[in-house]
Amino acid sequence: xxxxxxxxxxxxxxxxxxxxxxxxxxxxxxxxxxxxxxxxxxxxxxxxxxxxxxxxxxxxxxxxxxxxxxxxxxxxxxxxxxxxxxxxxxxxxxxxxxxxxxxxxxxxxxxxxxxxxxxxxxxxxxxxxxxxxxxxxxxxxxxxxxxxxxxxxxxxxxxxxxxxxxxxxxxxxxxxxxxxxxxxxxxxxxxxxxxxxxxxxxxxxxxxxxxxxxxxxxxxxxxxxxxxxxxxxxxxxxxxxxxxxxxxxxxxxxxxxxxxxxxxxxxxxxxxxxxxxxxxxxxxxxxxxxxxxxxxxxxxxxxxxxxxxxxxxxxxxxxxxxxxxxx
Length: 327
Known about the structure:
Helix content: over 70%
Shape: globular
Number of strands: 0
Strand content: under 5%
Number of helices: 13
Oligomer: single chain
Order of helices and strands: HHHHHHHHHHHHH
Structural class: mainly alpha
C-alpha cells in the first residue's frame, strides 16, 4: 500500500515544478517585452533631447554599468579574474556591445523601430549559424540552408519595402537598413567571440564587464559627437529606463527564467521582442507597416523559429540560444 505522505509529496513536487516552469516562461516573456520597448524609447529620446545614437548608447551603457557594479558587489573580484584569463574575449565583447547597440540606434533613427528590430534580431542567429557551419568546415543541413534562404528572402522584402521615399518615420531608409544589418552582424560576431569567456564567468559578471568596457569604448566618440543635452525630467527618466529596465531588470528576468526553461524555448520566446517593438512603433509613433514589411518580417522570424527546432520537433540548443550581452 502506497504511503499517502509519499503521494502527497510527489504531487507537491510536480506542482512546484509546473509552477516554476510557468514562472520561467513569464519571466522570459517579460524580459523580451522590455527589450522590445528599447527602440521606441530611443526614438522618442532622440527627437525630444537631440541626443544622437552614439550618445544615447553611451548613456544607456553607463547607467547599466553603474547599477551592475553596485549589484555585483563581491563578484567584482571574479570580473578582475575574468579579465586576466580572457582579456581578448572580454574586451572584444565590450567593444562589440557598443558597436551593435549604436548601429541599432542609428537604424531606429533612420528607418524606424519596426524594421530595425525585425532585421537586426532576425539576421543575427542566421549569421551565427552560417559562420559556425563555415568554421566547422561542413555544409549546412538542408533545413539550415532553407532557413537561411527564407531569412535572406525576408530581408530582401523588407529592403524593397523600405527603399521607397523617405518619410518622417524613416528619413534615411537605405542607411537605416544597412545599420540594422550591421547591428545583427556585429551582434552575431560578438556572441561568438564572447562564448568562450562566458563558459567560466557568471552571466552577471559577464554582463557587468561588457557594459563597463562598452561604455568606456563609446565615451570618446560620444564626447566628439555631442553627448551634452539639456537635462530634463523626461530625458533623464528615459535614460535611466534604458539602463535599468531594458538592461539590468530585463537580464535579471531572462537569466532567472532560464533556470526552469530550456534555451531553445527561451530563444523562441524572445521573438516577443520584435513583436512588441513593432506594435509600439505603430501605435505610439504611427510608423507605417506596409504589406511587404509584414511578409518579410514573418519570413525572418519564421526562419528563426524553425532554426530553434529540430526536424523531429524536439527542441535543440542553437548556437545563439544563450545571449550573454545586453541587447
